[in-house]
Write a structure and sequence with these properties.
Chain A is mostly helical. Chain A contains 5 helices and no strands. The longest helix of chain A is centred in the N-terminal third of the chain and has 34 residues. By secondary structure, chain B is of the alpha+beta class. Classes of the chains: A mainly alpha, B alpha+beta.
Chain lengths: 155, 658
Amino acid sequence: MHKSDIYTALFGKFILSMSLIVLLISSLMVTSTLSAAALEPDPLQPKMIALTNEARSIALKLQCPVCDGQSIVESQAAVSVQMKQKVQELVNQGKSEQEILDFFEERYGMMVLREPPYSGFGLGAWLIPPIVISSIVIWFSFMLRRKNQQYKDQQ
Amino acid sequence: MSSFTDLGYIFLGLSLVIAVYACIASLMSVRSQNNSLRTRSLISMYLIALLMVSAASVLVYSFINHDFGLRYVTMHSNRSMPLYYTIAAFYSGQEGSLLYWSTTLSVLTAISLFIYRNASYKIVGYSTTILAAVFIFFVYVLVFHANPFERLPMDMPDGQGLNPLLRDPGMLIHPPLLLAGYMSWTIPFAFGIAGLLSNDIGIRWIQLIRKPTLVAWGLQTGGLVLGGWWAYHVLGWGGYWGWDPVENVAFLPWLTGTAFLHSIMVVERRKKLQLWSISLLIATFSLSIFGTFIVRSGILSSVHNFAESDVGHYFLAFFATSLAASISLVMIKSKSLTDVTTFESATARESGFLINNIIFVSIAFATFWGTIYPMISEALGNQRITVGAPFYEKVNGPLFLILLFLMGIGPLLNWSNTKREILLQKLQLPISVFTICLLIGIGFSGDIVLSLGFSACSFVLATILYEYLTGAKTRTRNSSENYFYAVYSLLKVDRRKYGGYLVHLSVVILAIGIIGSSGLQTHKEINMPINSQTTIGEYTLEYTGSATIEKADHTILASQIVVSRENRETTREMLPQTIYYDNFETQPTSRVAIIPFIKEDLYIFQSGVDANSATFAIFINPLVNLVWVGSSLMILALTIIFWPVSDKRKYKTHSKSS
């Protein structure tokens, strides 16, 4: 073996062992900080309750009143946490999904429902897309038929 | 008092003046056929790029230098932030992101104009005018209404710091990529309108516009995917796409842009749908301006927020003006453009493209409508109303399913007409694969919607495989290539066609991932006392305790969960965390703990910790890996299509044809 090759190999081993040591020390440090700091509850973190699957599926239909585009399930805002607790409570009381949604709509207004209602102004959200889409389709097929007719007539 | 940062403002002012010159000069150069004027306008655009990069560098420099005399720097950074977040703070606020937008626009403009400087005289001239005009708007807003170089009356000792939600590695790349995606549609738009102005929407125009469109599409795709990646890892609700208004507005230009990418193929091959394609391009550009405006104006939370930001009004005015101008231009020129005209047959490939376009536009419309409906409702003085994920799933879900089927049929159609027998013969394999999958799916799970989704994916897979294999078969017959090499050389020879199929393949992979992870997700929310156990799927989780860790500018609250898997010896540790940043204690952010197994992700979100118990949301997300695999493959396939054909081969094909 050439002398310089030996040096290279030695150097490689040195680097490898150094990085192993660094890795070991850092992982020790992480575990020690984890175990050293005794369990201190955080006063800032709102106390949470675990949602059952039924409560969660209802909570997914409720909008967080103070955040953009999140349901109360996703949101960690204090009001969402309270709403989640209320949902669970109402589910436990045996209230139906519709009753629970109505309960929240009464208090927070229509905006709390993530799915616009099938009545009143909410109907506009549901009806306009199908109307527009079908008119696009009808317009195109009409145009095509007319142009094809013209083309045939010309021939 | 003058300072170094005033230099940035001077650069902005200078580029505004030069842009006005370039705008007028390029327009005059087309009218008067004056070559030196044209050269000067091009050089001005290069100069602007240089000035804008310098201005942006000044801002980045003041961030690195902690210049807390600058209002923007003070608002968005502080001394204890690590360097990468300090630099990323550059595009975290309104002024900075507008500066970023216009800087990247000026650079991309300079590059495209340089590459195409010898292309059609008129098109290059007119596009310079349009690009300069768009640029003028943005720099005008920067100079007069959103100056990032505004100084405070006195220097502050320290800054506020970056919004905690933005302090994530994903946030280093996602916003700049998304903004770049919005911005980059300006280039194809400018080329498109220039083609319209010079009555030159032919093959040359398409060759000019194709690559900038692919670049914009790629950037937009990347931005959307990274957004999903970020949401999945930070927001902690187990998903990556929530039909959030901000996501929706980024999705809109992608939808119309994808439609445009398909429709220009019809323009190229059959000289049809010119009017329609131009309209799609205009829609895409307008929607990207709309997106930038919506994200930046605060109109989403409430119409009333909007009134507070005057930048919003400028955006609305610009949006309306550019839309009105483009539409009237299209109306003036509509006589010379071909439209749907005659389609020989419903089974022609162009009909397939047309249906594809109609569906993309329908999805875009439904999404647009759902996003703005709350604003309409509020503006009309009604109750505030919410249009959330359930709406989009119900309305767009079926449309996406049709699109998926179309992806399996479209490539089998021939241009102008397909004989019914041939089509039926080609469809034999896909249809039988589809039927078998559907029957198995319904038989096993009983879930019709899910089975339909997966079978539609198998249908498209079968078509793509069929196309590749028949292509490779013809090659092996005509040459000595073996099968695998033939598949590879298909990609090499007809890169657009087979590269396009590769994009379709990645879309199918993505679709399987989306259907799997949303339809088969298992979820459990549970409050666990210390040292208690719970099981989900084949995993047993033990909660062993929580701890707080103090860091320079934040505190981490982490819980330890030991995971063991059925029939496996080894255990793994998971550390879901909540992070409290100094100055932002009321806005904790989370770090979700995820173990990616091959078939599924185990995903734990810590939703609360108290003295001797903690609450977790635990998810099993099956097939979610395919979402990331599919989207990476999509970008890769795009790179393959985009990769320049070497001059050697160009020469070869040229000499062969002559």
